[in-house]
């Protein structure tokens, strides 16, 4: 969670640098060293549609509509993006005054680059809280036409001067903002607000784990995604997607461990560094423990099931990525620790994959300068598919439903 908040608090001066880094940082919040991010994201999107690793608290999906709806009702045109920004920055101060955990931009304030509206817009569209389901930039471009429509709902549907005539900008059942908003704003949802968000998730995320968990209060007890135990009567599609995510995250977890082991060994050998030698021992042990734990799943995991899922999701899985995953499974499915650690073909697979993705100037295993910059730990950790962020928002939802 801390990593995502760090990104959110970057200032405008860092914008270009952030965009470059975000090409490497994806939904898990760790560097995608071996080019598996598109598979992780496809599974994350299927499990939790509209969500992001940048999300913090659920009530933002109401804060943003309240800000823009007020601008539609009272605004006088002009630079809506700038006006909305000032309102979002004002919201930061009011949330901070309440001592709320999860305030986006609490450090950067006026210099915040990624506003909550940008962070949450995919959820607003996917959950159809923003009914046109277009981008934030589209909304800003067409704001004046849509604002006039809100103020003149009696306009004929064939009026060529208006867009989306007869439709709302924001869902008509959007609960009203509390009196005085944003003064006194906090992250506690009322029962009415929670029921509205629950209904939107249920209607627009049907068949997903997010949709199911919106109706079943299991998130608080599940500190890890794998602690979510679906009952036998849970929809089979949801259960199969969760099992696919569990298996894939486990069988591929060893790849970044081996990558870091190779980095530690290579730099330790070059520099005769005791710290790197100790790191190599650590990663060797971590890899060994992983292989023992994953042995059964390595023997039963079927990559063709993953590829079929990717096709159904209309996600991207380039052929080199598929070959890497399949070859990785072939090399480690035997479950023999010593054999895997000493398999030069397996190490060549990791080395060539990094070369394919980065080229000779950026690949750490090929470039001494890049190797020297290695922090000692990169890209390590089992894929979580945004669970920590989703869990926090589901807890907000069910707390509100309990009122």
Structure characterization notes:
- Pfam families: DUF6361.
- InterPro entries: DUF6361.
- With 403 residues, the protein is mostly helical.
- The protein has two domains: 27-49 and 243-372, no CATH class; 60-242 and 387-401, no CATH class.
- Helices cover 57% and strands 0% of the residues.
- It has 19 helices and no strands.
- The chain has helices at residues 2-8, 15-22, 37-47, 60-74, 80-97, 116-126, 136-141, 143-151, 191-204, 209-215, 236-251, 254-271, 274-300, 303-312, 319-332, 337-341, 344-358, 368-372, 387-401.
- Helix 4 packs across helix 5 (80-97) and helix 12 (254-271) packs antiparallel against helix 13.
- It is globular.
- It starts with a helix and ends with a helix.
- Mean pLDDT is 90; it is low at 1-7, 10-29 and 153-165.
- Residue windows where pLDDT falls under 50 for at least 5 positions: 1-7, 10-29, 153-165
Mean pLDDT over the residues: 90
Order of helices and strands: HHHHHHHHHHHHHHHHHHH
Radius of gyration: 24 Å
Shape: globular
Strand proportion, as a percent range, falls in: under 5%
Number of domains: 2
Total count of helical runs of at least 4 residues: 19
Structural class: mainly alpha
- Write down how many β-strands occur, each being a DSSP E stretch of 2 or more residues: 0
Helix content: 55-70%
Q: What's the assembly state of these chains?
A: single chain
Distance between the termini: 27 Å
* Largest sheet: number of strands, sense, barrel closure: none
List descriptors.
403 residues; mainly alpha; globular; disordered N terminus
Describe, in short, the structure shown.
The chain is an all-alpha fold and 403 residues long. The chain is built from 19 helices and no strands.
């Amino acid at each position: 969670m801390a990593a995502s908040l760090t990104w959110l608090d970057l200032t405008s001066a860092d914008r270009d640098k952030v965009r470059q880094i975000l090409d490497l940082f994806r939904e898990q919040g760790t560097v995608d060293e071996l080019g598996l991010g598109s598979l992780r994201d496809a599974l994350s999107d299927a499990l939790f549609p509209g969500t992001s690793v940048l999300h913090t608290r659920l009530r933002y999906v109401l804060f943003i509509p309240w800000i823009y709806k007020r601008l539609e009702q009272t605004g006088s045109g002009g630079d809506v993006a700038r006006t909305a920004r000032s309102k979002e920055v004002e919201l930061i101060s009011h949330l901070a005054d309440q001592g709320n955990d999860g305030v986006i931009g609490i450090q950067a304030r006026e210099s915040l680059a990624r506003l909550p509206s940008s962070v949450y817009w995919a959820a607003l569209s996917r959950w159809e809280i923003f009914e046109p389901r277009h981008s934030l930039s589209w909304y800003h471009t067409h704001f004046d036409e849509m604002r006039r429509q809100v103020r003149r709902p009696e306009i004929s549907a064939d009026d060529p001067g208006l867009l989306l005539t007869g439709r709302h900008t924001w869902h008509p059942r959007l609960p009203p903002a509390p009196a005085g908003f944003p003064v006194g704003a906090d992250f506690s949802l009322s029962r009415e607000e929670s029921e509205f968000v629950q209904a939107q998730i249920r209607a627009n995320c049907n068949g997903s784990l997010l949709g199911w968990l919106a109706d079943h209060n299991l998130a608080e007890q599940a500190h890890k995604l794998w602690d979510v135990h679906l009952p036998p009567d849970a929809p089979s599609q949801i259960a199969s997607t969760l099992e696919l995510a569990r298996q894939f995250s486990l069988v591929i977890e060893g790849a970044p461990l081996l990558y870091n082991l190779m980095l530690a060994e290579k730099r330790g050998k070059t520099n005769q560094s005791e710290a790197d030698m100790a790191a190599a021992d650590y990663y060797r042990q971590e890899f060994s423990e992983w292989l023992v734990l994953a042995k059964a799943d390595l023997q039963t995991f079927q990559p063709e099931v993953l590829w079929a899922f990717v096709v159904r999701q209309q996600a991207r899985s380039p052929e080199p990525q598929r070959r890497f995953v399949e070859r990785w499974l072939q090399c480690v499915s035997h479950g023999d620790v010593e054999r895997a650690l000493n398999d030069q073909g397996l190490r060549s697979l990791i080395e060539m994959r990094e070369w394919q993705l980065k080229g000779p100037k950026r690949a750490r295993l090929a470039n001494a300068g890049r190797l020297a910059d290695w922090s000692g730990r990169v890209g390590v950790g089992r894929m979580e598919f945004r669970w920590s962020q989703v869990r926090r928002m589901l807890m907000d939802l069910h707390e509100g439903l309990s009122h």
